[in-house]
Write a structure and sequence with these properties.
Layout: E1 4-16, H1 25-36, E2 48-49, H2 56-72, H3 76-84, E3 98-99, H4 110-121, H5 128-133, E4 161-173, E5 177-181, H6 188-195, E6 203-208, E7 212-215, H7 228-238, H8 243-257, H9 272-285, E8 290-293, H10 302-317, E9 321-325, H11 329-335, E10 338-343, E11 346-351, H12 353-365, E12 370-372, E13 385-393, E14 403-404, E15 409-417, E16 425-431, E17 437-442, E18 452-460, E19 469-477, E20 484-497
Length: 528
Amino acid sequence: MSDTVIRVENISKLYRLGEVGTGSLAHDVNRWWHKVRGKEDPYLKIGEVNDRTKPAKQASADGTTNHTNKREKLTTEDTESTERGAGGNQRADSGEFLEGHSQAGLQMDSEKLASIRSANDSRASGDRSTLDSGLSTPSSSKALDSRPSTLVSPKAAPSDWVYALKDVSFEVKRGEVLGIIGRNGAGKSTLLKILSRVTTQSSGQIKVKGRIASLLEVGTGFHPELTGRENIFLNGAILGMRKAEIARKFDEIVEFSGCARYIDTPVKRYSSGMYVRLAFAVAAHLEPEILIVDEVLAVGDAEFQKKCLGKMKDVAGHGRTILFVSHNMSAVMNLCTRCLYTKNGMIAADGETAGVVDCYLRDNAVRKSEVSFTSLDMNACSKQVSVLGARVLNSKGDIGGTILTTEPTFIEVDYVQLKNEAAPKLNIHLSTEDNTCAFACFEITNGVKKRGKIRSRVEIPAEFLNSRSYTVSIYFTNVTNNKPVIELKDILVLEVVDNMDAPSRQDYKGYFPGVVRPVMPWTTSQIC
């Protein structure tokens, strides 16, 4: 337990869409009345999962079902389990942990159920007399399991409450480098803001041991009218450093940031990249026990990102803890010893970095790692060939698995040969995110193919692709005039992850430019 520096226990963050407050004075008073009595926010059970990928029409269709299911789950067992978590807002002893902004643990009683039902009934068209009779005694909560819920009308609108985070729990050990990955809107930045005490959680508790330095957004902790020199002292003071300690590190901070020429210029004249340079230099050199870094490093150039990764490795090597959010999977695998994958405000995976990254890539790219076609897809058919499907395989034969630069990659295409004659030639093109063609190759066959199903596989050798995303396009071209008869553009996606321990890298840990990265044979000899 002494090695644990961060402990997060069932924290949730609830937002109301489109409004700053709770929507009405009655709701505000109701929330305040529960708070002064030490009870949980009465609207915490109303929220929906924060799935930003769900269309608005689908959210409206699913809203009633979600509400009904949530009402049905409010049983006596829920009351007993939440009462056991009450009292989580007590501060730990100063010699142990410092708790974050905590509220009482989840607690349900008959008054809580009444407030929730009242909140939903304002949107529903149900009969109020029926609702009141259902709240006559505390034991009536058991009836929710034996009869359909009448709290929400079938035509009721979905909840306008969403969970940015919901029941998130994890621990971080001293000296651990924890990567946090996930899609945009998955709750990563919200989690870091709560840990940094920029905002508070709606429920749950956080225990932290040590001083936290955070780099969350461009310009965080800086005043635009002050110079770079003044902001270094200001930011250091915010982080709890003494003036003498900041002055001792001042030269190192300025040198690392590369902003020496502009250090006496107001930071409002800095570019976003210079902002990040100076902010990271301050956060990393003031020796915090815990360093929190959001995706802001993406603003800096390649040279500075390399310096930052090196500095974070050095910080971690001295026993300090780092929480690192990034969409750069290569950087996460290179830096982090452990990884969290957040999805819709909840933790979907927690464990060893390579496995969690593989889970994330599978979850987000599998729908483009394989594609199927039917006879109704006219773009995939011609008079001679009908394409059935295509897929990307890693070295283990897995569809959508992690593809490393040091392992071969395979692309398979299934199609039907409709006639016993020379078939159109199969071509595969790989392109980068900016639509630059990396390379193209075509199938080499021996004359006429027989009618029937055919599977063609091409192997992309190891140490050839660079660490980046590629799209795959498939063409069938006429053997006489080379004109395409089938064009299937950007139907597959390859996400290639760098292997930082590859022998071909030797001592180089930086980024390789170029759309591909082949290992070439070299011959070196002494000529004089």
